[in-house]
Design brief:
Layout lengths: L2 E7 L5 E7 L2 E8 L2 E9 L2 E6 L10 H12 L8 E5 L5 H9 L4 E5 L3 H10 L7 E5 L3 H6 L6 E6 L14 H10 E13 L4 H11 L4 E6 L1 H4 L5 E8 L5 H9 L6 E4 H8 L23
Length: about 290
């Protein structure tokens, strides 16, 4: 696995690191505004942003929305047990470690070469209780003990698409098994018009969880552009008022849908099973231009 340096420069002449990983061509590109921060791209698609000097800083919109879920999963500062399906540059695991010290986290990231790259170029805090497993997300989830997790976050993309076997009711059965009865599940879902994949995922999660909320840019919800939506679910009531407030006050405001409005948005879509599951749609090239 060779490493090369390209001519994309950041602060003080810092250069991007370019390396072939299992999932394609990875680049860690310097952030011109933050001395040690890097953006991870895979085959040109932005995946993560990390600032080692400020791990509580979340640059990407969808990661800030997941950050709101993390903040509201338990009283402020209380340690939690978290399973991250999909690791990227370990942005959200670093966020949990920074905002909830003494939390115990498991990260399941199939791309072992990517994990090595990130660990080398953006080392984790040695005091953070973060274990990284290089295996398939569903296989890694199956090894989590029953009722272990306070929070499970799914942010898995292969070639900018979520694999089909992570979109089904059978997958959600594993999520519910690994969560505490009071636990929260959050998934990053990418879709564009006509939003068939997103509607199907809402129906699938609703078949396994009684409480749901969807956080997304209004333009995405109206089917005007391709983008990310964060689907949040639990066996207990969600903190909807505070989630709505935080989403609305974001630099890129989002809307929270729940209850009848979310059911109406789903439009009668059927839950997805393993037998019928397909990967999420590929984003149009214009998304990353």
């Amino acid at each position: 696995m060779g490493r090369s340096r390209n001519n994309r420069r950041g602060p003080a002449g810092a250069q991007a690191v370019t390396e072939t990983v299992d999932g394609g061509l990875a680049q860690l590109v310097p952030d011109p505004d933050r001395p040690r921060a890097r953006t991870l791209l895979i085959d040109g698609a932005p995946q993560s942003h990390v600032d080692p000097d400020d791990p509580a800083y979340l640059s990407f919109e969808y990661q800030r929305r997941l950050g709101h879920v993390i903040d509201l999963a338990a009283p402020p500062g209380r340690p939690v047990r978290v399973v991250h399906l999909g690791g990227g540059a370990l942005t959200l695991a670093r966020y949990v470690a920074a905002t909830r010290p003494r939390s115990t986290q498991q990260v399941v990231e199939r791309d072992a070469a990517l994990v090595q790259l990130v660990r080398r170029e953006l080392p984790l805090d040695p005091n953070a209780r973060i274990r990284v497993r290089s295996t398939d997300a569903r296989e890694g989830l199956a090894k989590v003990p029953d009722g272990w997790a306070d929070l499970i976050i799914a942010d898995v993309f292969s070639g900018a698409r979520t694999p089909a076997h992570l979109t089904s009711t059978e997958f959600l059965d594993e999520v519910r098994r690994a969560l505490k009865p009071s636990g929260v599940y959050a998934a990053n879902i990418a879709d564009g018009p006509p939003l068939a994949h997103l509607r199907g995922q809402i129906a699938t999660v609703a078949a396994r969880f009684p409480e749901l909320a969807l956080v997304a840019d209004p333009a995405v919800l109206r089917g005007r552009r391709f983008g990310n939506a964060v689907l949040v679910a639990s066996g207990l009531a969600l903190p909807l008022a505070e989630l709505t407030r935080r989403a609305a006050s974001d630099p890129h405001p989002a809307r929270v849908e729940h209850g009848k409005q979310l059911a109406d948005f789903t439009g009668g879509a059927a839950p997805v099973t393993d037998a019928a599951a397909v990967a999420s749609p590929a984003p149009p090239p214009s998304v990353f231009q």
